[in-house]
Model the fold of this input.
Amino acid sequence: MFKKKDKKDQAQSYEISPEHILEVRNLNVRISVDDYLLHAVRGVNFSLKKGETLGLVGESGCGKSVTSKEILGINPDNCKSEGQILYRTKSGKVLNLLELEHDGATYRAIRGSEISMIFQEPMTAFSPLYTIGNQLSEIILLHDKNATKASARERVLEMLRKVGIANPEKRIDQYPHEFSGGMLQRALIAMMLCCDPDLLIADEPTTALDVTIQAQILELMRSLQKEFGMSILFITHDLGIVANMCDNVAVMYLGEIVEFGSVRQIFHNPCHPYTKGLLRSLPRMDQNRDERLYIIDGVVPLPVDMHPCCGFHDRCGECLVGICDTQQIPEYEAEPGHMVRCKLMEQGVKHHG
Ligand SMILES: Nc1ncnc2c1ncn2[C@@H]1O[C@H](COP(=O)(O)OP(=O)(O)O)[C@@H](O)[C@H]1O
Ligand SMILES: [Mg+2]
Done:
């Protein structure tokens, strides 16, 4: 067989800040659908330090999953990207992932052993035809050339134990359908740990689970992060989870990051009307039980026919007509490290939650 040559994989090395593992620079993703073009990710910039957890938040349809799939190179062929996704590999070389062939050898080596992803529907990650143990062992054998069948099985047992699966000696030989949703999410986390990634992308990993199981899975992820020291890009529409899990937060709306800051900055001094809306829609302890939760009016529109303006203007109660709906909105620094993309910042209007 003639092997497809991975010519673009001889990518050049780039420079990023020494404490960073990932720098996304001016990322744009356009998706062609039938006869129109969606501009799903618009000029996104963010970076992730080693061992840090960055929350990417926003309502459904904001572009969170498209952004994260672009990092892993798993968006479908109708998606075209521009910009840079600079990633520091385990060997220390910095690559622009956008230059790699999606199915090339370099990307295949990065996926799994360097960058792993866990997502909302763990069932789709497993084949129904093989036992959980077989599927996890296979990954270990694939990533560790020195592993044997017996050593891989031992390692799988250890990982199942680590993620809190009771009776792993029995569980290892069961099929995915014999696991509950919460157990399967644990097994998926075990699968991810078998690869020992430096970067974990968790896309709404607990959305399908009930709150008790959700709390357990989040606690598990926190303790594993402490132990293994990986960086996490945590994607969620739930700001309550962000407060528990993250160091920094990027708030995304209609393909743009509209506010970025530490968890403290975002929760104590939210500046963008969209962030404030998301925070107001969180249930609070001091709230009257009969009081209805706030909901931001409307839904995220499709990012089609985008012209320079604030994407949130038509849902914003503070929109400056003639400005927010007609101009490209620059970034403002609310305080050191706290970035806001909102014209109101220019007027020195200070907003507190
Ligand atoms: N493969 C695709 N084909 C067409 N449109 C897509 C595709 N993937 C995402 N989109 C659109 O891109 C936008 C962003 O989607 P997504 O990143 O999945 O949002 P989120 O994860 O924040 O809910 C949405 O308008 C969505 O409908
Ligand atoms: Mg999504």
In short: Confidence is low (pLDDT under 50) at residues 1-5, 349-353. The radius of gyration is 21 Å. The chain has ten helices and twelve strands. Residues 211-228 form the longest helix (18 residues).
